[in-house]
């Protein structure tokens, strides 16, 4: 059927376009996250109130926003001196989520508002984030006990009751 032949490349192009625009988490992301050792100053300054989030979870523009807004940080004052802000920002930018995967709209200041995050967690039962052992979607460690090592693989997930 010669008439269907020209359609095939079109169909592939359509599939490719979909896969490029869908907010996806890829295995490559996981490997990259786990390979980035945390800068000691980052570990020190950013793990007092929550996990020191691996830098590959947010694009550079988001990290710049988070670092700019530290005095009003999600209801907390997380201010740091200008030199430390500059040092951490530079390191976060260098290890951020690559721009080609950031089809997430305008830079969110939350990992948990990234399109890929919503997509990966949309099958969890409603209300799960409010369970006592979890409290917030930002509490990655509740379900991903190796989150502090940048490991989020499905096989490493443990759901608290
Ligand atoms: C004084 C406590 C405190 C310190 C210090 C702190 N944070 Fe936070 N951070 C918070 C709180 C509170 C939240 C909101 C958590 C929630 O919604 O459950 C938050 C949330 C975040 C989020 C968004 C999480 C999400 O919902 O996706 C990011 C990113 C973040 N912090 C980065 C940082 C960085 C980078 C540093 C170091 C420069 C830092 N934080 C230091 C208190 C702190
Ligand atoms: C209530 C428990 C829970 C919390 C809290 C949670 N997750 Fe998840 N996460 C899951 C579950 C369950 C899956 C698997 C979803 C699936 O495969 O359908 C998942 C999947 C993922 C994946 C994809 C893993 C893969 O290999 O496909 C990533 C990345 C991820 N989560 C990151 C995070 C980050 C970062 C945080 C914190 C900001 C977080 N999660 C908070 C339960 C949680």
Give a verbal description of the structure:
This protein is mostly helical and 161 residues long. It has one domain (23-156). The chain has 6 helices and no strands. The protein has helices spanning 7-21, 27-35, 40-46, 60-68, 82-94, 115-120. The chain starts with 6 loop residues before the first helix and ends in a 41-residue tail after the last helix. The model is unreliable at 15-22 (pLDDT under 50). The site of one heme C (HEC) has 19 residues, from helix 3.
Contiguous low-pLDDT stretches (5 residues minimum) are: 15-22
Order of helices and strands: HHHHHH
Q: Which structural class is indicated by helix and strand composition?
A: mainly alpha
- Proportion in helices: 25-40%
Q: How many DSSP-defined strands?
A: 0
Largest sheet: none
End-to-end span in angstroms? 57 Å
State mean pLDDT (0 to 100 scale). Answer: 85
The fraction of residues assigned to DSSP E strands is under 5%
Ligand identities = heme C
Q: What is the total number of structural domains? A: 1
Taken from the alpha-carbon principal axes, the silhouette is globular
Radius of gyration: 19 Å
Specify the number of helices: 6
Helix and strand layout, with pairings?
Layout: H1 7-21, H2 27-35, H3 40-46, H4 60-68, H5 82-94, H6 115-120
Helix pairs in contact: 4-5
Bound molecules: heme C (2 copies).
Spell out the key features of this protein.
binds heme C, mainly alpha, single chain, globular, 6 helices
Short description:
The chain is mostly helical and 161 residues long. Helix content is 37%, strand content 0%. It binds heme C (2 copies).
């Amino acid at each position: 059927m010669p008439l269907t032949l020209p359609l095939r490349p079109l169909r592939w192009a359509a599939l490719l376009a979909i896969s490029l625009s869908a907010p996806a988490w890829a295995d490559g992301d996981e490997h990259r996250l786990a390979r980035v050792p945390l800068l000691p100053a980052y570990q020190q300054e950013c793990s007092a109130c929550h996990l020191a989030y691996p830098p590959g979870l947010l694009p550079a523009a988001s990290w710049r926003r988070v670092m700019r807004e530290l005095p009003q940080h999600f209801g907390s004052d997380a201010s740091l001196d200008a030199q430390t802000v500059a040092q951490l920002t530079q390191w976060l930018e260098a290890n951020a989520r690559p721009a080609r995967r950031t089809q997430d709209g305008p830079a969110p200041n939350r990992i948990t508002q990234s399109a890929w995050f919503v997509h990966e967690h949309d099958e969890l039962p409603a209300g799960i984030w409010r369970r006592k052992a979890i409290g917030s979607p930002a509490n990655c460690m509740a379900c991903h006990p190796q989150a502090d090592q940048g490991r989020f693989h499905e096989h490493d997930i443990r759901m608290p009751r």
